[in-house]
Amino acid sequence: MKKIKYFLNGLSAIIKYAVSDTNSYLTQTSSYFIKDDNDALSKDWKIIGNDLRGTIDKYDKEFKTR
């Protein structure tokens, strides 16, 4: 049961940091200037995915140093 609790706590921390990192970008997104909505959405999701991957890596490094 403790492992599940630790997993969920870690997952919520990762999501919290990812959302706070990507919110600032989403307000400045250039999708307004792209005429093809699918292309704009695809580019935004790629950026969010890269930010999420970076956040997970950063969280992993911080967790290992504890």
Which sequence of SSEs, written as H and E, runs from N to C?
A: HH
User: Rough shape?
Assistant: elongated
Low-confidence stretches: none
**Largest sheet, if any?**
none
What's the number of helices? 2
Helix content: over 70%
Indicate the radius of gyration in whole angstroms: 15 Å
Distance between the termini: 22 Å
Describe the structure.
The chain has 66 residues and is mostly helical. The chain has one domain. It is 82% helix and 0% strand. The protein contains 2 helices and no strands. Helix 1 crosses helix 2. The longest helix has 29 residues. The mean pLDDT is 70.
List keywords for this structure.
66 residues, mainly alpha, 2 helices, 82% helix
Give a concise summary:
The chain has 66 residues and is mainly alpha-helical. It has one domain.
What is the strand and helix layout of this fold?
Layout: H1 2-26, H2 37-65
Helix pairs in contact: 1-2
Protein name: Hemolysin
Organism: Fusobacterium nucleatum subsp. nucleatum (strain ATCC 23726 / VPI 4351)
